[in-house]
Amino acid sequence: MVVKVHGPTFTAATRRVLACLIEKGIDYEIVPLDLLNRAHKDPEYLKLQPFGVVPVIEDGDFTLYESRAILRYYAEKYKSEGTELLGKTVEERGVVEQWLEVEGQNYHPPIDTLIVHLKVFPKMGVPADMKLVEESEEKLAKVLDIYEERLSKSKYLAGDFFSLADLSHLPATEYLVNDIGKDYMIRDRKHVSAWWDDISSRPSWKKVLQL
Amino acid sequence: MVVKVHGPTFTAATRRVLACLIEKGIDYEIVPLDLLNRAHKDPEYLKLQPFGVVPVIEDGDFTLYESRAILRYYAEKYKSEGTELLGKTVEERGVVEQWLEVEGQNYHPPIDTLIVHLKVFPKMGVPADMKLVEESEEKLAKVLDIYEERLSKSKYLAGDFFSLADLSHLPATEYLVNDIGKDYMIRDRKHVSAWWDDISSRPSWKKVLQL
């Protein structure tokens, strides 16, 4: 069964899902969605994803949205195929879940604000709120200091194995490093920098960036 | 092994964890934390929870934070004990995960803003930002309209079974209904209202409120 992924390949949430499908060796088909023409607010799309955001997957007659829920679903469904992404024990999975939550609650939001104000708004001719930009960078710096400490003790976030916790950080960090000139936030932290080099050089991520 | 739960019993995240432990019949011990005296920023506490928020659990020498990660850990570790909270199939769990993410990303944040501005700030003598209150209520109303549609088709969020997805909504909804006078947001929606009556009358939740 080929998994249909509805969503444009440049959004963080869609890229997160694609990276997971590639790591697991699952066949997928991208169903492009024209966000500029508000295709994500179309009644047909809202039947699949009532909140009107991307992505949503269709796998036969099973549909699922929320990118991090989709990651967990495929990592569990195909546990023994491709890269093991949830750890080997229930405790390892617990720690994977902890860092997945940290990514969703603490890491992604300030980067999202930076992207909106430093990349999206300029394209639309809307002035950035530089006070908010500064506050978001301060928040993110504190989070990254905790990551630096963590990654000085284990190679990956959840332990000495690559997992969904790391994978989920790929899209936002890619924007931070390569799109809005904030690469110093990663590069100024030795262990975070080495971790980023490691996870961003995975073939799955390189493939996502080519899509 | 008795699970130590560090955190005051009035916070949403701690209550979420306690409700889960009670549903699973797991013995716990609450380690109170004096937030007013900034015990959550104490170096000893930061060793357990580097972000300085509550709760964190200690289970023997295993520690874990992020309330929704703790829910998943115990629901999986004790899958066959107490209430089944993750569904029976990998698809059911996928849908549980979807609604857990919706709760964390779409439902909790606007309620959190309402609580801060309508309950916490008044106690501190800080004026509420009424424009932000209004925006948060609008956001939440849209989310609740989607819940109303969903709950017209299934008894609980993830299907016809109570799960972590429902449980995770208990703390914020309790505040909304009983602490800041916004009960009409639940009561004006027939299926959301019936769902709230159902889940909030569970013995586990009544016990949490007595702690």
From TrEMBL, chains A, B:
UniProt key word Transferase: yes
Domain GST N-terminal: 1-82
The keyword Transferase is assigned to this record: yes
Listed GO CC annotations: cytoplasm
Its EC number(s): 2.5.1.18
Domain of life of the native organism: Eukaryota
Biological process per Gene Ontology, one example term: response to toxic substance
GO MF entry, a single one: glutathione transferase activity
Catalytic activity: RX + glutathione = an S-substituted glutathione + a halide anion + H(+)
InterPro entries with a match to the protein in the record: Glutathione-S-Trfase_C-like, Glutathione-S-Trfase_C_sf, Glutathione_S-Trfase, Glutathione_S-Trfase_N, GST_C, GST_Phi_C, Thioredoxin-like_sf
Keyword line: Transferase
CDD domains registered for this protein in UniProt: GST_C_Phi, GST_N_Phi
Residues of the GST C-terminal domain: 89-211
Family stated for the protein in its record: Belongs to the GST superfamily. Phi family.
Protein's name in the database: glutathione transferase
Source organism (scientific name): Coptis chinensis
